[in-house]
Amino acid sequence: GIQVEQSPPDLILQEGANSTLRCNFSDSVNNLQWFHQNPWGQLINLFYIPSGTKQNGRLSATTVATERYSLLYISSSQTTDSGVYFCAVPTSGTYKYIFGTGTRLKVLA
Amino acid sequence: DAGITQSPRHKVTETGTPVTLRCHQTENHRYMYWYRQDPGHGLRLIHYSYGVKDTDKGEVSDGYSVSRSKTEDFLLTLESATSSQTSVYFCAISEATRIDYTFGSGTRLTVV
């Protein structure tokens, strides 16, 4: 089945810094989602981004489907950005999403 | 999360007992999913449903069964709980035409 790898596994930033999280996937996909899990465990959908670039405030995401990767950019990080970021892609022809193991981000004040 | 509720939020049960977790939605979304989250594994799909009485297996379905008798409810049953099923269980919903997920708040299950 499709494999999803995220890097880096852990990231520590000072408040105000920028960061890039990467998601690689092993097979072609027709969509991709990014999620944030806050320190209390709540999972929030950030982006549904099958291709191209989307922006939402300080966050933006780019997916290059032909090269099988997606990037999540966090600019001017805040302590509330802390948590785990997951990307997820569907197995071929289904709505069964496979999640990466996540990037754990800690933003220090 | 608004529109999707999981119950119970926490449960401790003994090995060998059956356990049922409930996911309830008020969004009338067609698709519903059960995931488990374990350290080092991210989220793994257990079962999903694409309509009333229509379900399919995910990556880690052994030891679990599901039922969906009405649009709003998706039940996950551990037929005979084992310690390896200690985990946090998340339910998610999605619309067919809008694939983005909405997750519930999770159920923390401990099997002793």
Q: Which two chains have the most extensive interface, and how many residues on each?
A: A-B, 21 and 27 residues
Q: Hey, roughly how much beta strand do the residues of chain B contain?
A: over 45%
What is the number of helical segments of chain A per DSSP (H or I, 4+ residues)? 0
Residue-averaged pLDDT of chain B: 93
Separation of termini of chain B?
29 Å
Q: Tell how many strands the DSSP assignment of chain B holds.
A: 11
State mean pLDDT of chain A (0 to 100 scale). 93
Classification by helices and strands of chain B: mainly beta
Low-confidence stretches of chain A: none
- Please tell me what the overall shape of chain A is: globular
**3D shape of chain B:** globular
This entry's quaternary arrangement is heterodimer
Determine the structural class of chain A based on helices, strands and strand pairing. mainly beta
Largest sheet of chain B: 7 strands, mixed
**What share of residues are in beta strands of chain A?**
over 45%
Total helical segments of chain B: 0
Distance between the termini of chain A: 41 Å
Low-confidence segments of chain B: none
In helices, the fraction of residues of chain B equals under 10%
Structure description:
Chain A has 109 residues and is mainly β. Helices cover 0% and strands 56% of the residues of chain A. Chain A contains no helices and eleven strands. Chain A has strands at 4-7, 10-14, 19-25, 33-37, 43-48, 52-56, 59-64, 69-74, 83-90, 97-99, 103-108. In chain A, the strands form two sheets. In chain A, strands 2, 4, 5, 9, 10 and 11 form a six-stranded mixed beta sheet that branches. The model of chain A has no long low-confidence stretch (mean pLDDT 93). Chain B is mostly beta strands. Chain B is built from no helices and eleven strands. In chain B, strands 2, 4, 5, 6, 9, 10 and 11 form a seven-stranded mixed beta sheet that branches. In chain B, β9 and β10 (102-103) form a beta hairpin.
